[in-house]
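WARN no homologs supplied; continuing
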Amino acid sequence: MRSIRPEVPPAVLALMLCVFGVTTGEFVIPASTAAPGKQASTVSTLVFGMNLSMILGAPLGTLIGNTFGWRSTFFAIAACCALGLALVWRLVPDIRDAVSAGSAVAELRVFRSPDVRWAIAVTAVVNAGLLAVFTYFAPLLTDVAHFAEGSVPILLLTYGVGAAVGNIVPPLPFSWS
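OK structure emitted
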């Protein structure tokens, strides 16, 4: 880490709360509004979109931070979260009537399923790994590989596009049966 300032913990906490809030509804809304039998592919598409947002967001956040200072990246993320909340509020249908009313304990019983636990664990590990790579990429590129700070957003974007293509293209021949 390059430096730690007293302002960092509240900003990181705010970001964590924002991410938790977004990901809490991330699976419930698509699974509840998808056509029967399409819930898994709908959630899969959503997770790909989340990875794509990191692929595009990390270079853009780096560019904003390099240009306007690190705090501006957090303000940009907060603005995107506010826009996302407004869009969800406006565009996502009300599913309260479609979802059966039950107790919170009954809802938590889904975690008894090993398949559900594995799916959540794999999603968490993949996303944590992707975030870890993006977190340490900038210092590795500038301090170790000696790239110019201005080239980091382009290099992050290049890595992200390669990672996305690498997740889409290799499985294709296996699905042509």
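The chain has a mean pLDDT of 75.
OK
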